Structures
1.
Amino acid sequence: MKKSHNKVISGFGVLVVGVVLFFTYGKFFKKNSVVGAGVSTFAVSQAGESFESEKKVKERVTFPDNPYQDIIVNNRLVARGHGPNCAQRYAFIKALLSRFDRPITVLDIGAAYGYFSFRIAHDFDATCLMISDPKLERMSLAQLCALNNSLDKVSCIAKRINAKELEQLSQREHFDVVLALNVIHHFPKNQWKRAARAIVNLGNYVVIETPPEGDRTLGREFLGDIMKFVESKRHAKIAKIPRHTSPDKHATMYVVKGENSSKKFVSLPQGVSLTTFKLLNGVYPTSQMIKKSLAQLKENNYSFLSQDLFVQGKHIVSAVST
Ligand SMILES: C[S@@+](CC[C@H](N)C(=O)[O-])C[C@H]1O[C@@H](n2cnc3c(N)ncnc32)[C@H](O)[C@@H]1O
């Protein structure tokens, strides 16, 4: 009993330290006016629309036992994760996103069961693209995207991406915010630095969470080097997150100022180009959904040139009407 009480207190302490750090270092980022979004209650978002209840979804779908992340469907918790506390981590990310006063794009690398993108797409006007290694999860992210049918602007790529592909991606695409939570140490020893550099080039603000030195996880021999790499960039530490493996150890959550932030894609539709999506094994929207979207564009006389087509959540949009 005393032990769990202590855990609660230490969790609370971490939250307080994180909030203090956020406000101390937060000035380092340009303050955008705060969005009126940020409703985080577990309720259906679109007025007038109704979605299948959590109970019905659970009756119909088998969710993995004891997944790494909490699993959510239409902003309701359907399976509790055993990894680092998702809701606590999301609070820090939400505070960062609340600084934008316009629609944003998010790339979630190593998205697991999509917890962060699904919550972001629910709480903000955000277009979220997830990338995850399909072999490491016990439920497909495409299926979770389909189940989260209250959300329009979430898509996913099923791929174990390597450093070279991340570099190519950073030359073609750019996002307001990139999430790289507990993923850099999953890259092989001879690739993590290249991958990390590409990740920092992919967004204006890059949220990196990384386990501490001494953690008995993958890539344990370079955990200290990852922290040194991140701290060599323009960064702020925004939270210390208790590790699920040993709660007396903490991962650090950083926000790094992207190094290619001058890249401007403002005139293009939000999302990712259809070519990139296809090249990297995009799986949601499905091929069938893409066909349907393209047929609608054809009906409305929009350009079909590949450079004009973008995946924006579950839809294809064209930059140009013909
Ligand atoms: C430790 S989990 C972290 C999940 C999530 N980011 C979080 O912090 O809750 C690592 C995730 O990264 C994904 N992953 C690892 N290496 C990857 C790679 N090279 N390409 C894509 N996903 C990868 C795994 O599939 C898994 O979802």
2.
Amino acid sequence: MLDLFAPIAAACDTSIAAEHRAPVAVVGAGAIIDVAHLPAYRGAGLEIAGIFDINLQRAREVAARHGLPRVYSSLEELLGDEHVRVVDIAVAPQAQAGIVRQAIAAGKHLLCQKPFVPDANTGVELIALAERAGLLMAVNQQLRYDEGMAAARAMVDAGWIGEATTMTFTVNIATDWTPWPWLVRSDRLEIMYHSIHYLDAIRAVLGEPARVFCAGSRTPGQVAAGETRTISTLVFPGNARGLVHTTHENRTGDPEAVFRIDGTEGSIKGTLGLLYDYPHGRPDTLEVSSRVAPTDGWLAYPVTSRWIPDAFAGPMGSLLRAMATGGTPYPTARDNLGTIRLVDALYTAMDYVVSRLAALDAEQVGVAAGVAPPSPQPAEARAAIAVLLQDLERAVSSERVGNLQVLMPGMAEQDVAAWQAFFQRYTQLAARYAIDHLSTRGDTGYATVRTLYMYVPAGGGAQRETRLRQAIRFTRTPNGWRVANIREAP
Ligand SMILES: NC(=O)c1ccc[n+]([C@@H]2O[C@H](COP(=O)([O-])OP(=O)(O)OC[C@H]3O[C@@H](n4cnc5c(N)ncnc54)[C@H](O)[C@@H]3O)[C@@H](O)[C@H]2O)c1
């Protein structure tokens, strides 16, 4: 190994120190436990106390194949095993949250499979439960530990490509969903179960996007119910941008799975070997060209391990290390909530494009005329206020005070004048409101909100940003929730 790569290889190490190891029990005996979790844990020298699956026969087969000492006959029996300190879950995803609640009540640390939760609210609830119980909860978003990906991130962290400006994944493969009946039936498919890995990997490098766009579709003749082709674009505060373009309906037998990170001082590019013959695949490839390292052109990094099974030792090792040292696992469930929110935002953007196009055409006429109708709001106050804030983001982007007045009917004359002046000073406006805290009582709601404005000054120039903390008061009218006023937060 070139000396240059020694610190990069060290950052990719997924071995688990003997003093960090603790007994683990596994819930679920499905495909991924069989081909990835258990081989990785055996390779890392972990003690697996036993396994439980509602399909007992399947649990017995997997236990026999991997030499596990015990098959539990119920979840309660597994959780009652005092020897077990960590529960590793990989079940059909709708069953995961219930198992997590029971495992927390039993005092076990947790490694959950992706997708961690079906929606962010469930994630917030589970994280609060674990934190209150003093338990650690990590999510098995193990592409972060796949050697090609981990080495790329270590190179970015070492400053080898300067400021990272673009990160892209292009994946074109043939996926047979039929061994997983629950996937074949799922309305949400490609992003929720596959591209979630790439989105999480991009977040690990570029942080949280401020805006997203997504187009998704099915392919004539496909078996699965959900979307199998997606194009997701991520816009980050500042210069960075991300793109994930995935299709699972490759009909020409030439799989492709490539990624690339560009920066101001160089670039990194590679392939995800696993996807060239799932689930065996081949090692990733990785090359870097850096003016900082420096590399004098493209230099190949020698990848020596695989996504399946090797990367699966990463999240478990990190959880065990955190338990032993009082640290934090990487990534935590709280971090993963950002990935769940991103997935949700992409589906919202996709629905918006596909099914609401006609409605939007009509609405656009109203936006242009300065009389955009507010969107229909759900009955529940929090959900309704979330819809109202999305309308507000769009009204600000329309740069028409008339659109704001529909959402803020009580706007005083000086507020109208202030917004008009604002729209004259700035163009190409985009606003984003992220609620930090929201309380509602009767017909009134109060929120503290992190506000991000992106804009180009009217005189021209580069895109700029302003970040504010604002206090917003909401009121429920016979037509739905509206904004009563917006002030700087104290
Ligand atoms: N790279 C990855 O991280 C990766 C890859 C594949 C699957 N996964 C995730 O792992 C999970 C399982 O996937 P899989 O491919 O093993 O699916 P699978 O359908 O092969 O297996 C799921 C197993 O869960 C069991 N099960 C269902 N409900 C249960 C419950 N309440 N208690 C105990 N067992 C229960 C089923 O009997 C089945 O044996 C899914 O969430 C999937 O998204 C992750």
